[in-house]
Amino acid sequence: MAVRHRNHLDIISSSRITANTDGVFVYDFTANETTAFGPQQQKIIGGRAVMHSGEFNGDGIIQTSDYDAWILNPALINVYQNTDAK
After folding, report:
1. Which domain range does residue 82 map to?
2. What is the pTM assigned to this prediction?
């Protein structure tokens, strides 16, 4: 299973997942870092594994150009921008 979320790096499950009888997939990526395929896909915050955020330009890498885009485009009220975070 792969999870993609705007402004975060993608993560892939460490094991194959099958749907239950209702066709629903259930997988807890937050339990620890080993639930993702590879040790660098998540980080631990407050005892939970979380996705890396700050990927604003969509190239799959968090780097200074993402920070530059974020700092040059401050948050605005009632506007949803590519550089919105949190």
Report:
1. 55-86
2. 0.70
Give strand pairing partners of 11. 3
The torsion angles phi and psi of 58, rounded to 5 degrees, stand at: 75, 20
**Cα gap 70→74, rounded to integer Å:** 7
Cβ proximity of 35 and 2 under 8 Å: no
31, amino acid identity: A
**Do residue 41 and residue 62 come from a single domain?**
no
Number of domains in the chain: 2
State the pLDDT at residue 73: 85
- CA–CA dist 52, 17 (Å, integer): 22
Tell me: do 48 and 68 sit in the same domain. no
